[in-house]
């Protein structure tokens, strides 16, 4: 009985291979072979080294720019008023059009002024007649006085009357000239060429002399751009201006500047720095400077916002890289450098302004390094890469780039 029980236990614990299907044995064999060969297969299928584009930085003499914000203002602007009072008769322009110097814009009712002119002319004619008569009387008295026919006091009276008539004529002629000016002032003309605003008063309204604003005119070409610089920047510009042989207040020798407007589709505008104020503002510690730009096509308008780039240094050697080659590591800027073996390392850099589409590298590079230009997302320090060398062009033509 004991022997029989042992045999039954062995049969339950270790079933004979004769009772296992052949397909299960084959599957187990292939699984074991796969487990043995897995490490070798993984080693053979390691990912290839990432491919990146590399280049040498541009190294050349540069002039670093400083950027300021400011607004355009017209060189000439005027609020047009009438020199004489009266009722507005006609308006001779369309709102917002360009006008030339001397163009007729408004006409005040001329009838009262023509009547005053005619009256003044009559006063002149009367005064001339009186002068001629007084002169004849004086000459006749001179003749009679020499012959002793009239006393000397009578001659003096005739001389006095003649001189008074001449003075009266001078007064009448002055009144005539004044009446003529008043009539001329009834025609309000453009004092300079520019763009006229809308009319601020309609015909039939009373215009008060030297008070009622009829419209405004601003000049268009050229146009000025005003911006503020701080005290430290002023000293730097003044020093550079002296080295160029100029004076900051007189335009720093006409330094070339570039301005960008809010519309990124518009190209930059080139002008010259031509003026700075003669003192710093005590409240803000800044000085206002001015640049002048040609504006023949009229794109730039008074009051328009812009960013101006002013040369902030004299020419000096500089290292340039495209912005896409510069990464960030927390609060610092870095670039990825590739050695001869393709090993990546990171170098912190200090960046400057943009020049010709490139970013100035003020510190961190000598210009001899090979830098990753494209593919920064695929690299990190310590990784080996496959690099494709390229050459950076002298200038990047890209619209809408900002400093």
Secondary structure layout:
Elements: H1 2-13, H2 22-44, E1 51-55, E2 58-62, E3 65-74, E4 77-81, E5 86-91, E6 98-99, E7 104-108, H3 111-147, H4 152-185, E8 187-189, E9 194-196, E10 206-207, E11 213-218, E12 223-230, H5 231-244, E13 256-261, E14 269-276, E15 286-293, E16 305-311, E17 316-321, E18 327-329, E19 332-338, E20 344-355, E21 358-363, E22 371-374, E23 386-389
Parallel strand pairs: 1-23
Antiparallel strand pairs: 1-22, 2-17, 3-12, 3-16, 4-11, 5-7, 5-10, 6-9, 7-8, 9-11, 12-15, 13-14, 13-16, 14-15, 17-21, 18-19, 19-20, 20-21
Protein name: RND efflux membrane fusion protein
Domain Multidrug resistance protein MdtA-like alpha-helical hairpin: 117-186
Coiled coil: 155-189
Q: What does this 3D model show about the protein?
A:
The chain is α+β, with helices and mostly antiparallel strands. It has 5 domains: 2-41, no CATH class; 51-61 and 316-389, conserved putative lor/sdh protein from methanococcus maripaludis s2 fold, CATH 2.40.420; 66-74 and 220-311, Efflux pump adaptor protein, beta barrel domain (Elongation Factor Tu (Ef-tu), domain 3, Beta Barrel), CATH 2.40.30; 77-106 and 194-217, no CATH class; 111-185, Helix Hairpins, CATH 1.10.287. The chain is 30% helix and 33% strand. Helix 3 runs antiparallel to helix 4. The longest helix has 37 residues, at 111-147. It is elongated. Residues 1-18 and 399-403 have low confidence and may be disordered. Residues 117-186 form the Multidrug resistance protein MdtA-like alpha-helical hairpin domain. Belongs to the membrane fusion protein (MFP) (TC 8.A.1) family. Residues 250-309 form the Multidrug resistance protein MdtA-like beta-barrel domain.
């Amino acid at each position: 009985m004991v022997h029989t029980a042992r045999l039954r236990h062995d049969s339950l614990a270790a079933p004979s291979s004769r009772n296992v299907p052949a397909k299960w044995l084959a599957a187990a064999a292939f699984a074991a072979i796969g487990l043995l060969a897995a490490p070798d297969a993984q080693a053979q299928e390691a990912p290839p080294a990432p491919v990146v584009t590399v280049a040498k930085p541009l190294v050349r003499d540069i002039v670093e720019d400083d950027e300021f914000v400011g607004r355009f203002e017209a060189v000439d602007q005027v609020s047009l008023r009438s020199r004489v009072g009266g009722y507005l008769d006609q308006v001779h322009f369309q709102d917002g059009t360009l006008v030339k110097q001397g163009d007729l814009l408004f006409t005040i009712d001329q009838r009262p002024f023509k009547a005053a002119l005619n009256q003044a002319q009559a006063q002149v004619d009367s005064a001339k007649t009186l002068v001629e008569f007084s002169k004849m009387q004086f000459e006749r008295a001179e003749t009679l006085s020499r012959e002793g026919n009239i006393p000397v006091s009578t001659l003096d009276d005739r001389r006095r009357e003649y001189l008074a008539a001449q003075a009266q004529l001078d007064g009448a002629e002055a009144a005539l000239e004044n009446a003529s000016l008043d009539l001329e002032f009834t025609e309000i003309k453009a004092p300079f060429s520019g763009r006229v605003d809308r009319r601020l008063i309609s015909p039939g309204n009373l215009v008060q002399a030297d008070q009622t604003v009829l419209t405004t005119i601003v000049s268009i070409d050229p146009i000025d751009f005003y911006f503020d610089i701080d005290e430290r920047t002023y000293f730097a510009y003044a020093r550079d201006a002296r080295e160029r042989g100029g004076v900051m207040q007189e335009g720093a020798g006409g330094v070339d500047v570039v301005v960008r407007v809010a519309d990124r589709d518009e190209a930059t505008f080139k002008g010259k720095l031509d003026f700075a104020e003669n003192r710093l503002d005590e409240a803000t510690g800044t000085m206002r400077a001015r640049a002048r730009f040609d504006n023949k096509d009229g794109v730039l308008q008074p009051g328009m916002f812009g960013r101006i780039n002013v040369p902030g240094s004299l020419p000096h050697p500089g290292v340039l890289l495209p912005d896409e080659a510069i990464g960030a590591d927390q609060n610092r800027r870095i670039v990825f450098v590739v050695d001869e073996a393709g090993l990546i390392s990171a170098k912190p850099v200090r960046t400057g302004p943009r020049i010709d589409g490139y970013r100035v590298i003020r510190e961190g590079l000598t210009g001899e390094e090979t830098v990753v230009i494209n593919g920064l997302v695929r690299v990190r320090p310590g990784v080996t890469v496959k690099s494709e060398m390229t050459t950076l062009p002298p200038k990047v033509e890209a619209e809408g780039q900002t400093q």
